[in-house]
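Before drawing any conclusions, I looked closely at one protein, both as residues and as discrete backbone shape codes, quoted below without any editing:
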Amino acid sequence: MSAFSVNDRARQMWNAQGRILLALILRDIHTRFFGHGLGYLVAIAWPLTHIVVLLIIFSLGNRAVPFGDNMVLFLATGVVPFMTFNYMSRFIMYSAAFNRPLLAFPSVKVMDILIARAILEFLSSCCTIILVLAVLWLAGIDFVPRDTLQAFFGMGACLLLGFGYGIINGVIAMAARSWITGYQLVIIILYLTSGVMFVPDAVPSQLRYFLAFNPILQGIEWVRSAYYDGYGAEILDKNYVIACGAIAVFSGLLIERLVRGRILQQ
């Protein structure tokens, strides 16, 4: 077989794979909210709404800014990284569970569903960040991080964690749909313990020690350290975040490979 025919066959396979992923992405956009593609905009606007609600709550309680001199910026640097992780992990799980009937088509594989949703959530996160930054700019708030590169790395770490957790939860949800409810409860616990609304360095050392094992908290600390000088000095461990994300992705891929046959037989 000539090199030309091999390359041509590989190109055809990649093109076919690309069409499958694109079809899955378009299907997810159409079905994610309200059975209409425009409902997808809710996913982009929700983090901004979340920030506004928290800002109102903090204002009514006359609470001081936990760190820095701007409450909106502090909340944004916590909510956006957490929502990035949350959406990536949760909606990959949803896609795996609700798109399971598509596995009846021989050309659609479990990883196709997971990767298509991951691509969509990555694009959603980019749109969300752009929207939040645009609103902050219109409000006259200086949103430029002290260290732009570290801010990107911190957000990337949250995406990596979300992707790894999403694969694991997606495979579990395919085998047991009830896990979707269980993970909703896990997300609530993570939200309350990940430093979205408080400064981990300010809590007692005994509690801070246990909080440090939460990789999502570490990801948020990483993002905020790019905005506030000295932030996270007592708890931030960047290598730990990356290691947790890599282990989660590897574990998810391994679990998917081990249970692939069983999922297809159900």
